[in-house]
Each structure stands twice: as C-alpha cells, then as structure tokens.
Design a protein that fits this description.
Blueprint lengths: L2 H15 L8 E7 L3 H17 L2 E7 L5 H13 L5 E4 L9 H7 L11 H8 L10 H12 L8 E5 L6 H10 L3 E5 L15 E4 L9
Parallel strand pairs: 1-2, 1-3, 4-5, 4-6
Helix pairs in contact: 6-7
Keywords: Hydrolase, Multifunctional enzyme, NADP, One-carbon metabolism, Oxidoreductase
Organism: Aphanomyces astaci
Subunit structure: Homodimer.
Length: about 210
C-alpha cells in the first residue's frame, strides 16, 4: 500500500470513529495579519478538516490587532467545550509576543505541540504529550511505513526550530536513536555524515552550514 492509500484509510477510519458523535470535533484557528502564504495555509487546513469531518472555526485578525485581543480569542477557545483543538498560525506580527500567546493555549488543546507542558512531556522518557507537531510525527510515520529502522541508529538533524527540528530530534530519541543536532551555528556538518544512517534537512539554508 502506498502513502496515498494509507492516508485514505486513516481518513475513513476517522470518519467512522466520529460518525455517530452528536457533535463533530472542532479546531479553532487564529491568524493575524494579511500574509498570503499564511492565509493559503489556513485555508488548506480548513479543507483538510472538511475532508475528515472536523469543524474549522477560523478567526482572522488585522495586522494592527493588539496582543490583548488575540489573548481574549485564545481564552474564548480555551473555555469553549465545543472546541477540541487550537492552532495559532505563525508567524505573528512583531507587536505580539509569540511565547505569551502560545503559553496561553491549554496544553490539552495545543494541536501544534508548542506549549511548554507538551514539549516537556515529549522530551522526557516514558512521558506522552497531549499533542506533537504534525510534521515531525509525519516524518517518523514515513520511516515506519518504509520499515526504516530507527533504534540504535545515528541520526543527524539539521535544524532546531520549535515546530520541526527539535521535535524530530526528541521523537527519534524516544525511539532510541542517537541524535546529533546541527543548526545555523554548527560550523561543519560533513564530519558527522559518514557515521550517520539517518539524515534530516529541516532548514532552508542548507549550504550555509555545510
């Protein structure tokens, strides 16, 4: 079975699981500003929600919106029992502190896995976060689908972003890989290459640190 068939199978299982729910699962999404790429991304997430039967509650705010207004919306989603998950579309304007907004989301609704509680649970052994970022989860799942061994292997991870690089490294450690983290301040990556069996490029400027 290819990746597409696997995806369709998961979609169908999710629909069946929630087909008799009196209330559909719901995702609250918050976007601030008018970045076209961010809007397209939010709209794509909305279509993905519709595909599996999740109700998407999008809240779009102007670039001039204050941090207090965004926090009020986060708290409203937190308090709403019909909202199961909350997603903050990044980046936020420079006038809004991303850390404050991310920390305001309930860990139990933090679908991006960015809240310190979820990050801490992911980092610790024998702990399970409520959520882990979807891209890192997808990377590990692709390895599993292709039956690529992880335990005992040396993995080099280029990138340490909170949303991708760091979670990938932590997921690999949970699967007993030996992880070498490289980033923009790493002077040379090539010396690590001969001994690694897994190599992840999770940065935009790869050539700059080779």
């Amino acid at each position: 079975r290819g990746p597409h068939a696997n995806h369709r199978g998961k979609v169908n299982r999710f629909k069946q699981l929630h087909s008799h729910d009196r209330q559909r699962p719901a995702l609250g999404m918050i976007m601030v500003g008018d970045r076209q790429d961010s809007r397209l991304y939010v709209e794509a997430k909305g279509r993905a929600c519709a595909e599996v039967g999740i109700r998407a509650e999008n809240r779009f705010f102007a670039q001039s919106t204050t941090q207090a207004e965004i926090l009020r919306q986060v708290h409203a989603f937190n308090a709403d029992p019909t909202i199961d998950g909350i997603l903050i579309q990044m980046p936020l304007p420079a006038t809004i502190d991303e850390k404050t907004v991310v920390d305001a989301v309930l860990p139990t609704k933090d679908v991006d896995g960015l809240h310190p509680y979820n990050v801490g649970e992911l980092a610790m052994r024998r702990r399970t976060p409520y959520f882990t970022a979807c891209t890192p989860e997808g990377i590990v799942e692709m390895l599993d689908q292709e039956a690529v061994p992880i335990a005992g292997r040396v993995a080099v991870v280029l990138g340490r972003s909170d949303l991708v690089g760091n979670p990938v490294g932590m997921l690999l450690r949970k699967r007993h890989a030996t992880v070498i983290s490289c980033h923009s301040q790493t002077t040379q990556v090539l010396p690590f290459y001969p001994n690694c069996r897994l190599f992840f490029v999770l940065i935009r400027k790869y050539r700059s640190i080779v």
